[in-house]
């Protein structure tokens, strides 16, 4: 009889006691600078190559509203005239427009491209943060594959530099996940991830669908529930 084939057991770093502790200890480590430079270069190229229109919301729920806030003219859709939308996301771009106005650089090209480039920079940081997250949970090899897939994702390439609330929700969720206590208590970062989650929900309320079960799971696993509520949830709220 041939000797039984022995399959190699792959054990995730996340679920090993020593690896899990090491992953949590290294959660704040920075990603390699060349990786960030690559992500910034690709997302900048991404920004300039994507010149099509996707959905009206990338203008009517962000840039048009910001333009009206700064320059006092422009069209607002019915959601804004009926006060059904929040101004938190357009306010980001309004601050950019105001800076351009004060510098007397508020020409058409800069009004178009500065918000897009800002969104591209945020997307690049989110790409690198995703790499760091997977690196700490698994290993560098897996993180490289995830990073490669993220950069090669056609839909991510198509949408991540657009001024959409969906895009900002995705970016904030990636950053929040990097601070989320995936295993055990990690009170030192609870306030950070809860603040990012709150911001994501303010910008796009549907983010609550993703984060409600995760926050509830954290609450159930947290041994110091009172501290979590008093020193993290209430200040963020």
Q: Could you list some keywords that capture this structure?
A:
mainly alpha; 2 domains; 71% helix; 0% strand; Mannosyltransferase
Pattern of helices and strands: HHHHHHHHHHHH
Roughly how many Å apart are the termini? 66 Å
Radius of gyration: 21 Å
Structural class by secondary-structure content: mainly alpha
- Amount of helix: over 70%
Biggest β-sheet description? none
Number of domains: 2
Work out the oligomeric state of the chains in this entry: single chain
* Tally of helical segments: 12
Number of strands: 0
Overall body shape = globular
**What does the average pLDDT come to?**
83
| Spans where pLDDT lies below 50 across 5 or more residues | 5-10, 17-28, 184-188
Strand content: under 5%
Family: Belongs to the glycosyltransferase 22 family.
Subcellular location: Endoplasmic reticulum membrane
Protein name: Mannosyltransferase
GO biological process, one term: GPI anchor biosynthetic process
């Amino acid at each position: 009889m041939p000797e039984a084939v022995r399959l190699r057991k792959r054990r995730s770093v996340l679920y090993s006691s020593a690896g899990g502790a090491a992953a949590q200890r290294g959660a704040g480590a920075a990603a390699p600078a060349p990786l960030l430079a690559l992500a910034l270069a690709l997302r900048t190229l991404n920004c300039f190559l994507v010149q099509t229109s996707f959905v009206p919301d990338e203008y009517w729920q962000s840039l048009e509203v910001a333009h009206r806030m700064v320059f006092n003219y422009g069209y607002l859709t019915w959601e804004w005239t009926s006060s059904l939308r929040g101004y938190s996301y357009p306010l980001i771009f309004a601050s950019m427009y105001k800076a351009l106005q004060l510098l007397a650089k508020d020409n058409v090209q800069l009004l178009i491209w500065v918000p897009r480039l800002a969104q591209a920079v945020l997307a690049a940081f989110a790409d690198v943060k995703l790499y760091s997250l997977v690196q700490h949970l698994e290993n560098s090899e897996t993180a490289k594959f995830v990073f490669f897939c993220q950069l090669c994702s056609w839909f991510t390439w198509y949408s991540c530099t657009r001024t959409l609330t969906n895009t900002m929700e995705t970016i904030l969720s990636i950053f929040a996940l990097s601070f989320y206590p995936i295993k055990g208590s990690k009170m030192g970062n609870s306030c950070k991830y809860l603040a990012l989650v709150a911001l994501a929900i303010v910008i796009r309320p549907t983010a609550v669908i993703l984060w409600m079960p995760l926050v509830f799971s954290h609450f159930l696993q947290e041994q110091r529930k009172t501290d979590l509520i008093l020193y993290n949830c209430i200040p963020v709220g």
